């Protein structure tokens, strides 16, 4: 039994109450996390605010060195954190599961540690010198989701720390254990108050809503649903907080008629089913040209049948359960509706507990709920089209615009199609392969701002122009 604590001002804080955290593979309680109060949040923010004065004055080299120490600490405890992730999130240890997530966390942390935002000289002549400086905003509030509890926390924390900000982070109540433990570990190499954590059950207390309205928090970075992101934005408006919002996606893939169905089957599967489909930038809709539609479906289903689903702690599992009952019910409802309108090629029936088999449904169209609504789970609709312009129109017919993909034997032609897709990232012959050296963000309802690279660092700073 893992009993987590919050970390506030460098100290372990158990909170006045706690809540159970269950393994979605077994339903068993595997740990407890504190139910933090508004007073705990205020104390954490005050600690971060106090630490900001000295942390923000550190040199660029000192901040880089501190972030490298953070990276080393994450890597040193990668297996410990991977096991916690699997136990609370459900994803397998192997494949593209928890060890994969921790590998990504280390890679992103290390890359971000090496970034910098030097002073930029805009003018230097007889009329005078003008410099553009990037200054840390202050206390950053981070609110993270349950699908990648450590990796997304790293995406939030490292750029904030690298630019001289201090942080209060609140993980999802579904997956608080690994994040709280990581913050505890990182406090071994960071000054007290620079990185703080709070947690709650979102029932008896909802610290996320309190954070987005807190007058001392100067920026909120949030990853989660569009609906919650809009509430964060409304609440944050009263104090003019800076915002980075990475919200839901209903990513479309377009398979062109010259694609090789057998060659792309594995990429299509993992594009849609990575982390059991519980990924913002996973492929949620697949448009396939009429001439190869049946062949693509045949090879996609054949590959999917070989992927083993089971308890995440089983080293042979490649897919785990849906993380929580609420999301399981959403997937079940959408698949149930799809079965009335289309043809289930694989899966379609809920398994035991929170296990839902990889499901592929053909014969659907825009307007059907499994196509229009982000399922965020292991169900993929395959939509037949006959004219490429029609596929592009249908792909863009969404309030979301996070990612998209084009599948073709002609990369240059695929790029031309990609340029017409309304989304922040487009991949050719793959889907969702984000990297730390490329900016990532959505358009339309899929978010505000970008993450990663120097563009992501700037999101944690205010611009100050100095004339001399």
Automatic annotation (TrEMBL):
Cross-referenced InterPro entries, in alphabetical order?
Answer: Ald_DH/histidinol_DH, Ald_DH_C, Ald_DH_CS_CYS, Ald_DH_CS_GLU, Ald_DH_N, Aldehyde_DH_dom, LUC3-like
Q: Does the keyword Oxidoreductase apply?
A: yes
Sorted alphabetically, the keyword list is: Oxidoreductase
Q: Where is the Aldehyde dehydrogenase domain?
A: 18-466
Q: Which CDD domains match?
A: ALDH_AldA-AAD23400 (cd07106)
Matches recorded under Pfam families: Aldedh
Indicate whether Oxidoreductase appears among the record's keywords.
yes
Write out the catalytic residues in the record: 246
By sequence similarity, the record places it as follows: Belongs to the aldehyde dehydrogenase family.
Protein name, UniProt field: Aldehyde dehydrogenase family protein
**What lineage is on file?**
Bacteria, Pseudomonadati, Pseudomonadota, Betaproteobacteria, Burkholderiales
